[in-house]
Amino acid sequence: MPVLIRPARTPARPPALKGTAISTPDTTVIHLNGPINSGKSTVGAALAALLPAARFIDGDNHDAPSHLPYTEQWALALARLARLIAEARDRYLVIAYPLEQDSYEQILAACRQRGARLRVVTLAPALAAAQSDRGGRVLTEWERQRIAQMYLEGYADRPFSDLVLDTSGTDAQASARQIAQWLAS
Prior knowledge:
It is built from six helices and six strands, in the order ββαβαβαβααβα. It has helices at 40-50, 70-87, 101-114, 127-130, 141-152, 172-184; strands spanning 3-7, 28-33, 54-58, 92-96, 117-123, 163-166. The protein has a six-stranded mixed β-sheet with strand order 1-6-5-2-4-3.
């Protein structure tokens, strides 16, 4: 079972799991934050499969031209996420994308404009685990260096996180179940 590092807040209206009644039609955005190789996409897809009327959005699939500077690619990715939040008809949106303070504020503003609740879950495996080849992913040397930099920049422990979860010793399904249980509590 994943290690719960720090629950910061409890959701105002807990979600129902698949097979149970849903008490409200509101949209809840569950944003999975964390450094490269923390499990955002894999856990996100697994979590969306557990929640009723959920849609998974991989923030890295933004279709921004690769020749653009990273800052422009990131701006396009955030604009796409804000648009998808605004257009959401799903009960749950599970988004996988690393957040800095300014990008968190953009996502929060999009949620507020839409009338959606935002829950940020930061996936924070130990640095050694994040830098290892895990889950079938083989990291490049650049990715290993970027992961170390992301830890120094605080991606594994953002103050706006509602939940920080150590995914070092677990698989995506177990982490998704832990998050779903936390949401329902």
